[in-house]
Description:
The chain has helices at 13-24, 42-46, 63-73, 87-90, 94-115, 150-169, 191-203, 224-236, 253-263, 292-298, 306-320; strands spanning 4-8, 28-33, 53-57, 77-80, 120-126, 173-178, 181-182, 210-212, 218-219, 222-223, 243-245, 251-252, 272-274.
Amino acid sequence: MAKTALIFGVTGQDGAYLSRLLLEKGYVVHGTSRDVENRSFAGLKALGAFENVQTHSVSTTEFRGLTELVEHVQPDEIYNLSGQSSVGLSFSQPQETFNSIASAQLQLAEVLRHLNAPVRLYNAASAECFGAVPSGQRSSETSPFHPVSPYGVAKASSFWVTASYREAYDLFCCSGLLFNHESPLRPERFVTRKIVRAAAAIAAGSGERLVLGNLGISRDWGFAGDYVDAMWRMLQHDVPRDFVVATGVTHTLAQFVDEVFGRFGLDSKDHVDIDPSLFRPSEIDHSCGDPALAAQVLDWRATTSFAELIDILVEGERARS
C-alpha cells in the first residue's frame, strides 16, 4: 500500500523538490499553503508535480485546523518546511518569523501528541542555528548553537521543540540541520537568484549594475534536489535522529559571483558594486557543515558539486528567457 505524505510549505523550493521525489517513490502527496486559491504553485508546476499533489489551505499556528487536516489526510509522514524563509527579512519581521517557524512546529508536535498518531515528523531546522564559527571549522550534530538572526533563533527553537517532544512523548520526530541549498526555484529576494538574474540581464544588454553587500562571507552551498533526499532518508531510519545536511565544502560569495558571471562571459568586477547598507546587523562570516553522520547512518552524500550547482542555476535562468 502506498504511503501518504503531508508537506507543510509545499509551495517553496524544498516543498516542490520533495513532492517530486515522493511522487517518484509512489507516495500519495498532500501539500499545504495558507491560501491555495491565491497561490501559483510555480515550483510544483516547473517540476511537473503539481497535478499529482493534493493541496489544502491551513494555518500552521491554528491547532484545530491542523488537527482536522491530519485526521483527514491520515499521513504516514509529515514534513514541516513551512515558515518565513529569508534570514535578511527576519530582521524586519522577527515576530512573524518566530511564529511561522517555532510556534508552527510546536503546534504540529502538539497535534501528533494529542492524536497519538503513528506519524513520522520531519522538521526543517537550519545551519543558522549554529551562528558564526571560526574559519575552517565544520558544524556537526554536537556543535553548540549560537544563532545571530531572528531566523536562526526561530529555527533553533523549532529544533529544541522537536527534540523535547521526541524525548518526552516518544514521538518519531527529527530535525534536519540543512546548510545553504539552492535551485532555480529560489525567489528573487534570495541573493543567489538575485546574482544569477542580474548576470543574465547584463549579458542580454540591460546595462544595469548589481549591488551587493558583504562578498567576503563563505557558505556551504548545495543543491536542493539532493537535500530533500536526506529529509526522506531521515524518516525511513529506524530511530528518530537529527542530522546535519551539507556538502562540507565552502566558497565565498565573491567566488559565487565570479562563477555566475563567468558563465555568461562576463567579468563580475565590471558590473558589481558594494553597498555597506546591505550588510546585516549581525553577519555569519563562515558557515560549513560536517555531513559525516548522514553519510555513515543514512548513506547520504551531496552529489552535486559547486560548479554543477552554478550550471543548474544559470541554465534555469536561461530557460526563463
